[in-house]
Amino acid sequence: MDNKADHNQAASLSPTSQQKASTSTEDELSKQFEGTSLENSEQQSKTELMEKIINFFKKALKISKKDVKPLEVAKACVGPNANKSSVNKYLEPLHRAEIISKTFFKITKDSQSDPRYNALPEIEEITEKKIKELAAKVNSGSKQEKKSLDQPVVTDNEMSPCKNESAASKIAGPEDTTRSVPTAHAPAYPFSKGTHNQKDVLSSIARAEVSKSVGLIHIDGQPVGTGFRVGEKYLVTCIHVIRNVIKVKPHMLDGQRLTIEFYRITYNQKENELLIFSFQPLIAYFDEEYDFVVLELRSHDAGVPFPPALNFFADVFDSEIHLVGHPGGRQMKEDSIKPRWSPDHDKEIIPYISYLAHWSKSHFPDKRDYYSILLEPPRKIIFHTTFDTGSSGSPGVMIRDNRPCVVVMVRGGTPSCFYENRYPHLPVQDNHKVEYGYAMSDIYHKMLKSTNQNVKDLASEIFGEWI
To answer: Which long-range contacts (CB under 8 A, 24 or more apart) does 56-60 make?
Structure first.
């Protein structure tokens, strides 16, 4: 997905790379604990030691220290002669409670390094009661669990705010390439269930129905993004997906260069001319603010009817959203996300974005804040997703009254410099990447407020029924 001027700090979704652990100084943190180390952890209660470890990570968060090794925590909180196993049993309850994240970095093809831990913003709100609860969970597992705490298990899940990925979307085919830093989401012992990903069959049926209305957009035969059917003869997507074929902004496009292929569901699927449609040159609706465009499909030469339209829409609310689209410009995929937005979730997202903004300015050479744009108008629905380049324009649906209702359209992600591969030598962990989209209700209400009656009529047609 390409960027436009109004979104110069947020970009399209893209695969990520592996990174080596940061070797920045541990002395700065250790000095802050001088005089408080425990030479013998048995002399201190579990609660007191857990509190010391939590305070250690709070300090790390404030000075943007990341990828902390267990040995660093041990030396600072237990004593200079301590080893990592002294605190590993304390770090696991923090990791499982989503207070710190755990990351593994591959050293060679068949081996991995020790885990690194990174404090999440939630650590600032831990109460004394919570500390006692976490301390009570130390050594609460079986001997097999405790024996395996240092055995790395690499998954694609990540402990970070807003994340709630579906299991199916993490199974990458052989054609997938990624620069993502793998992180552990489940307790590190054999056959761990981790986060339960049971789904209602209804949601699977709903996504299958939605897939019939979603297509892969091409320019000059090359995949560029996703779009979905609405109304009698229309398709909606992001403006930046089709920007290269717009001839007379904002009214005309080169319809001969632009096509959409529906129902591409396998990687090596051969093109079926009966599933490929072109567009009329006149743009039906164009909104730069929401990066939203309505295009009119051209009747198929073979008389094939248009694919079914998505007819049901709803306001976004605090529930799981199912994305259906073409990440990577390949076969159709799905992902389930947990949406967040301002001001409803300010207590959760503002500290998170503030932390990321501070990290951004210290991490990238241009010293820019790539994250505060997420809080700027118009309202953005933010989330974490496995979707990458090619997913712009994907619909996100919620199940309401047993029907799939479109609530959001995927727009892009940030930090934009990462998605644009501006600094390929600087990897970005998954919990530092944030994707977003726009609520269909916001777009709909803006169209209804237009002074142009044609725009109002179009809104009534393409946004069929609100539930």
So the answer is: 56/29, 57/94, 57/99, 57/100, 57/117, 57/119, 57/123, 58/119, 58/123, 58/124, 59/29, 59/32, 60/29, 60/118, 60/119
